[in-house]
Design a protein that fits this description.
Elements: H1 3-16, H2 19-26, H3 30-44, E1 49-51, E2 56-58, H4 60-83, E3 92-98, H5 100-107, H6 110-114, E4 120-126, E5 140-144, E6 152-166, H7 168-174, E7 188-191, E8 199-204, E9 207-212, E10 218-219, H8 222-230, E11 235-239, H9 240-249, E12 253-255, E13 262-271, H10 278-295, E14 298-301, E15 304-307, E16 315-316
Parallel strand pairs: 3-4, 3-5, 7-10, 7-11, 13-16
Antiparallel strand pairs: 1-2, 5-13, 6-11, 6-12, 6-13, 8-9, 14-15
Helix pairs in contact: 1-3, 1-4, 2-3
Length: about 325
């Protein structure tokens, strides 16, 4: 019996609460996973799990074994990561928690990473609300706003900006607003997430100011707002990450660029007790590179390049007051 390997299976069974979930992860049958747990019980001469048709739970002996085994397993993972095993050809599955908007961005870019890595798999776990990373079996996750969970290692990517955009056809038909106050006479597309959704905030020469906008189309999802903006219906306030490719192709253009809109911190996180396996490190570095390139990229604006960057004029609001769907 591979003691280390079987102990890892036990840890994953406890974390997921399911033999079938671990079987899917490791491309095994459920019976094969159950057999490894039985072998572990026979090896130590104790019962490790209470099994019912609805739930798995650790026995007292199982709790003790798991408490002793976790530091050892984490240490072995750390040694492997430090020594760079499999670095030349990382293999296995990496589960990444992302928001809906970020999933669209990464889905267009991850194939370039995977094309040369036949043994690597990346699963995007898409949700605008994330719970515990261990329970959700996530190796990495993107977080919007300030991260206060001390159990996570946080790598701040940048400040994710919101931009005001419109289709060229709308600009040709209705003209281009020169100041945020001009939005009152324009058709705007509202990302409706509750009271105050139709109030947009900008930094002006007089400081932070709020402006009421209106229009006939509202949606509680950024993707729908983006589609409506691309159709030429009106002006929208969207995360730069959501519209970056549209700006590059010219399907959307930035307006009011000299008046910074809201921005929020964007981070990659992973559980602090886990060492990054080579495959996870590879995906981590790839996402980091892609996001930084996107956020710091040069995007078309009024026919000329303009570099998006955080500066003293940027407006950073608390995460609780802004949409999480970036």
């Amino acid at each position: 019996m591979d003691l280390f390997g079987t102990l890892k299976v036990l840890v994953r069974v406890v974390e997921t609460g399911s033999f079938s979930a671990v079987a899917r992860e490791r491309d095994l049958t459920q019976a094969a996973v159950a057999k490894q747990i039985s072998q572990l019980e026979e090896h130590f001469g104790v019962r490790l799990l209470h099994r019912t048709t609805r739930k798995l739970s650790l026995t007292d002996d199982g709790e003790m074994l798991l408490g002793l085994a976790r530091p050892i397993l984490d240490g072995v993972d750390g040694l492997e990561a430090a020594l760079g095993r499999q670095r030349a050809s990382p293999v296995g599955l990496v589960r990444v928690g992302v928001t809906v908007t970020a999933s669209h961005f990464l889905a267009q870019r991850l194939p370039t990473l995977l094309a040369d890595r036949p043994g690597l798999k990346v699963e995007l776990v898409i949700s605008d609300r994330f719970g515990d990373m261990i329970e959700d079996r996530l190796d990495l996750a993107m977080r919007v706003g300030e991260v206060t969970d001390a159990s996570l290692v946080v790598r701040r990517l940048a400040t994710a900006s919101f931009v005001v955009v419109a289709a060229p056809s709308y600009i040709e038909r209705k003209g281009r607003p020169s100041t945020p106050a001009d939005l009152a006479s324009h058709t705007c597309i509202v990302h409706h997430v509750g009271p105050g959704s139709d109030v947009w905030t900008f930094v002006t020469s007089d400081g932070s100011q709020q402006f009421h906008v209106s229009g006939g189309f509202l949606a509680n999802d950024f993707s729908a707002v983006r589609v409506a903006a691309r159709s030429g219906y009106g002006i929208a306030l969207l995360p730069l990450l959501a519209v970056l490719d549209d700006l590059r192709t010219g399907e959307l253009v930035c307006v009011l660029s000299e008046f910074p809109a809201q921005s929020i911190p964007l981070s990659l996180v992973y559980p602090s007790r886990r060492h990054l396996a080579p495959r996870t490190r590879l995906v981590f570095d790839f996402i980091l590179e892609q996001l930084r390139e996107a956020i710091l990229t040069t995007v078309p604006d009024e026919g000329a390049p303009r570099k998006r960057r955080a500066d003293a004029r940027s407006l950073t609001q608390s995460h609780s007051s802004l949409p999480e769907r970036i």
